[in-house]
Design goal:
The protein is α/β, with parallel strands linked by helices and 294 residues long. It contains 10 helices and 9 strands. The longest helix is centred in the first third of the chain and has 31 residues.
C-alpha cells in the first residue's frame, strides 16, 4: 500500500504538469540570463530536472507494466518520421562527443503503419540514447527494415561492449553492465527494462549481441500492420507572421504557473498575447476586443 501511494503521488506530480512547469520556466530563464555563472546554474537546473523527469517516467512505466495497466495506442504512425525525430534529438550530443549518428531506412521498408508513436519513440530513444552515452568515439547507427511481416530496428554502436555473462541481466530493472560507467555517465538501469517490457507488450522481441572492445547491436522486431497511405502531417511550427500585422494569441488556463510559461514562450516569438485564468473573463474580452485572433 505504501509503495502504491508513492507511485500515485508521483503520477499526480507528472500528470498535473508541475515538473514540466519547472523545466519550461528554466528554459525561458536560460534565454534571458547573460552572465556565464548564471547561465551555468540554469543549465544545471535543466539537466537535473530533465533527468528527474525521465526517472519519474521510467518508474511510472515500470509500475504500470507490472500492474498490467499500460495501454498501447493503435493509430497511423509515420515510422520514418519518428526515427528522424529521435536522431535529431541525440545528434547534437553525438556531434559534441565526436560520434557519428546515422539513420538508414532500407528500400521497401514499411514507413507507415498502425501503432503507438509515443511508445515507439520511447523504446528507440532509450536504445539510441544509451548508445550515444556509452560510445566515447566512433559511430552509432540506427537502421529500419521489414522482414517476414515484422518491423525491425537495429541500434549498433562502437562502444565498450557488454561482457557475455552480463548480457542476460541488462534487461532487468536497476541493472547496468558496468558500475564504473554508471558513475561517469549516470543512469538508473531502468531504460532497457522499460524497452524490454514495452516491446513484449507490443508482441515483439529485443535481443543484444555484443563483443567487448568492439561494440554492441540491439535488435527489435515488432509485428507490423502496414498502411499504404501516409497520415496527414501538419507542420510542427506554423508559419507565423511576426511583422506589422502580428499574430494575436489568447491563452486561457487556471494553472497560473503553466499559463505564465506559455505566455513567456509565445512572447519570445514576438507574438501579441493576452492571458486569463478565468474563461468567463476571457470570453468577455473576446467579445469586446478589436483584434483578430488567429
Amino acid at each position: 500500500p505504501a509503495v502504491r501511494r508513492l507511485v500515485l503521488s508521483l503520477q499526480g506530480f507528472v500528470d498535473n504538469g508541475e515538473a514540466l512547469d519547472v523545466l519550461s520556466a528554466a528554459q525561458l530563464l536560460q534565454g534571458s540570463v547573460s552572465k556565464p555563472a548564471e547561465r551555468e546554474l540554469v543549465e544545471v537546473m535543466l539537466s537535473s530536472g530533465e533527468g528527474l523527469l525521465a526517472l519519474l517516467d521510467q518508474l511510472l512505466d515500470i509500475s504500470r507494466i507490472e500492474a498490467d495497466r499500460i495501454v498501447l495506442e493503435a493509430v497511423p504512425v509515420d515510422v520514418s518520421a519518428v526515427l528522424d525525430e529521435v536522431v535529431a534529438l541525440f545528434e547534437p550530443r553525438a556531434r559534441q562527443q565526436g560520434v557519428t549518428l546515422s539513420l538508414d531506412v532500407a528500400p521497401g521498408s514499411w514507413r507507415c503503419q498502425v501503432g503507438d508513436p509515443h511508445r515507439l519513440r520511447q523504446i528507440v530513444s532509450n536504445l539510441v540514447g544509451n548508445a550515444v552515452k556509452f560510445t566515447p568515439e566512433g559511430a552509432v547507427h540506427l537502421r529500419l527494415w521489414t522482414q517476414d511481416s515484422r518491423l525491425c530496428f537495429e541500434v549498433e554502436d562502437t562502444g565498450p561492449g557488454i561482457p557475455l555473462d552480463v548480457q542476460a541481466q541488462i534487461f532487468e530493472p536497476f541493472t547496468q553492465a558496468d558500475a564504473s560507467m554508471t558513475r561517469r555517465h549516470g543512469g538508473t538501469g531502468l531504460g532497457l527494462a522499460t524497452v524490454r517490457d514495452i516491446v513484449v507488450k507490443f508482441g515483439g522481441t529485443v535481443k543484444v549481441a555484443s563483443v567487448v572492445g568492439v561494440g554492441s547491436v540491439f535488435t527489435i522486431r515488432l509485428p507490423g500492420v502496414v498502411l499504404t497511405e501516409y497520415p496527414d502531417r501538419a507542420p510542427m511550427v506554423p508559419d507565423l507572421n511576426t511583422g506589422e500585422d502580428s499574430v494575436h494569441v489568447l491563452v486561457v488556463d487556471d494553472n497560473t504557473a503553466l499559463r505564465r510559461t506559455v505566455v513567456g514562450a509565445l512572447r519570445a516569438l514576438q507574438l501579441q498575447v493576452m492571458d486569463f485564468g478565468d474563461p468567463v473573463e476571457a470570453l468577455a474580452w473576446v467579445q469586446g476586443a478589436d483584434v483578430q485572433l488567429d
